[in-house]
């Protein structure tokens, strides 16, 4: 269930004591995968050190052996992890991967966006959202709850859309779909001029910034394996290998 290195989701040296059932888990995602209920990380009050097993108040450093539970710690979200330039956005109510200076919180969209979108994006909210009844949807994979109109959500499902229209996270578990894209990409090699080309992307699911192989069918996040990604810049072509000049056959004397 745990190790000093953390789990597949986070790098940390402590376990969270679930306020709902009192059990110890590395993170809320591990808890939710095992239990029939969900952990509210905001209500976490105690953690157990993975080194000395001391149960204590949630904090960044163990009060007994002084091991650091995480390079990054948020005392609101109770998020421990390696340093990814995270920051806590108070209006969003969650921690986001930064650095903070590259993002701003749009009050109208109610989410953080890249600085180059300041004053240069469409507000992703509609009057219909306020004039009709709303449905609170708990997103899969531990996402935060979002208010989405029932009619809009049903239309989204019918058209095959899978992203939450507010936060752009995948609205349900997409692993089977990602596996299918993996197979299609394996069977559809890019033309020679694009082979080896890479592109920078931002993952809408885990907020990771990474550089990955370019493919027209999708760019896969190297962090969580999601294809719910957005391209961040143009293609990065690999330098062409210099071809060795062909040796001319020696002429016979």
From TrEMBL:
PROSITE patterns: ZF_CHY, ZF_CTCHY
One Gene Ontology MF term: ubiquitin protein ligase activity
Name this polypeptide is given: CHY-type domain-containing protein
Domain CTCHY-type: 69-131
Principal location class: nucleus
Pathway membership, UniProt: Protein modification; protein ubiquitination
Alphabetic keyword roster: Metal-binding, Nucleus, Ubl conjugation pathway, Zinc, Zinc-finger
One Gene Ontology cellular component: nucleus
A Pfam cross-reference name: zf-CHY
GO process annotations (BP): protein ubiquitination; ubiquitin-dependent protein catabolic process
Domain CHY-type: 1-67
Cited Gene3D superfamilies: 2.20.28.10
Residues forming coiled coils: none
UniProt subcellular location: Nucleus
